[in-house]
Amino acid sequence: MNIYHKLDWNKCLSHEIWEAFKKGWPETDEEVHFFWGLAGKNVPEIQKCVDENKTWFYVDVGYFTEQITRYPEPKIHDYDKTYFRIVSEGLHTTGGNTHGGIPDTRTSELESKGIDIHFKGWDTGETKHILVCPSSQMVTHTINGMNQDEWIRQTIEDIRTRTNREIKVRNKPRPNNEWWGTDIKDSLVGCHCLVTNMSLSGIDAVLNMTPVICHGKNVCSPIASRDLKYVNKPFRPGRKTVTEWMKFVVENQFTLPEIESGKAFEVFKKQL
Q1: Predicted local distance difference test score (pLDDT) of residue 176
Q2: Does residue 16 contact residue 253 with C-beta atoms inside 8 Å?
Q3: Which residues of the chain have pLDDT under 70?
Q4: Is the residue at 101 inside a domain?
Q5: Into how many domains does the chain fold?
Q6: CATH at 140
Q7: Do the beta carbons of residue 263 and residue 118 sit within 8 Å?
Q8: Taking the model in full, what pTM does it have?
């Protein structure tokens, strides 16, 4: 029995997404829970699944994808280019395969659609600042056990004990905040490394030649440093390692038509 946890907001994207799942994800006798994001009652319901050893999946925006519009209400612009991640009992795909063996069919497909998935290497020029990009308030509290401001403060204090580099903070762009309407690519010019807990800004960093320091549960963790003690010399894996990680990551994201057709389930069940 599949249980889809709906949010009360009638414009939430999950209402459309769950309809696709209902058509393409087979029902079984086992109780299987599906969550979109961490809003509403999702956090305690996920914890209940963990405590009771029930199967659950987390669904959210994809890693390499055309972005949805979030404000004033969420909207998918191109169903063929908009991907959503499906994660088994976690918030991110973190079992990144960096050892080869995955065909590049999926990455080639995304490239043919004009989606940026090309690793350009690491910036070898002069870098100056460190960019700190926190996750949302909800994710930070769930993963780090503190509010976002406290995480930013502690992170900056830790970095200050290790380097004199300039530290810049970039939060999620939201209407009326200072980052609204800006492009993270501009913040990554001359950036020594990006520091985050769970934010997908790590993906932007990798695509823009910037190494990442992140939480061990972040999707970037297989190709990133996981401790601020490496802030002066963050991990810069080779091209093959990053490319193989990318191929694994895109195997775990799907368009709504792929979910509805059952393709997502057929691909995903091979990994279970």
Answers
A1: 86
A2: no
A3: 95-101, 271-272
A4: no
A5: 2
A6: 3.40.50
A7: no
A8: 0.93
